Amino acid sequence: MPGLGTLINGLAVVAGGLLGLVFRRGLPQRFQNTLMQALGLSSIFIGISGSLEKMLQIQNGFVSVQGTLLAVLSLAAGALLGEWINLERRFEQLGLWLKKKTGSEKDSRFMQGFLTASLTICIGAMAIVGALQDGLSADPSLLITKAVLDCLIIMIFTSAFGKGAVFSVIPLVFFQGSITILAQFIAPLLTKQMLDNLSMIGSMLIFCVGINLMFNTKIRVANLLPALLIAILMTPLL
Predict the structure, then answer these.
(1) HSE on the CB side for 87, CA within 13 Å?
(2) Element (H, E) at 145
(3) What predicted TM-score, i.e. pTM, was given to this entire model?
(4) Residues 6+ apart with CB under 8 A from 44
(5) Rounded distance between C-alpha atoms, residue 1 and residue 166, angstroms
(6) N or C: which end of the chain has fewer CB within 10 A?
(7) Is the backbone of residue 235 left (phi > 0), alpha (psi -120 to 50) or beta?
(8) d(CA 77, CA 82)
(9) Where does the pLDDT of residue 76 fall: very low under 50, low under 70, confident under 90, or very high at 90 and above?
């Protein structure tokens, strides 16, 4: 049935979070800190490899680059739109509400875990293509594959940040579920090049998540999310 893939994905995130909480109890702080840096490093290379996969082409034995103008314009326009809407603040408000409702006021890493995990598992072409596939043909196979990956990702995030990461299941279910419900209207509008550009920008945002983790910086990644939509809209123009 349509929506089964998102349901399985959500349950996998919760399961990974619960396993992560079990492992976290036995991890000293220095292990948690190193684990967070390892997450940052892996996110950086996942972001680099994903974006270069869509940008680099080999033609007649020469390597060429495509999509640079689209990336610059999408990220710049997305940053302006995201800052105007202030999506980061919206995520923070949801995180603060969850933090209060779960009695986690003293958990200093709750917000970081929630924001970082949410952005990591929601950004990317697999979430969109899988949700469309689930909605159009009731085929959850791609989202089941994603569920396995997300289970491992959230288990590691929860081990490093605590239970805040588990609540990334909320934006995940809302995002993928909405796409599944609207699949009949969305799918005819998307081309392969649109999805490739979406994947490229998504990988760049995952790179930003990795930078935040690795170097304890504060790139407002949530405010860059509109770049994903702008990349799709600009594809026919560039």
Answers:
(1) 18
(2) helix 141-161
(3) 0.86
(4) 207, 210, 211, 214
(5) 25
(6) N
(7) alpha
(8) 8
(9) very high
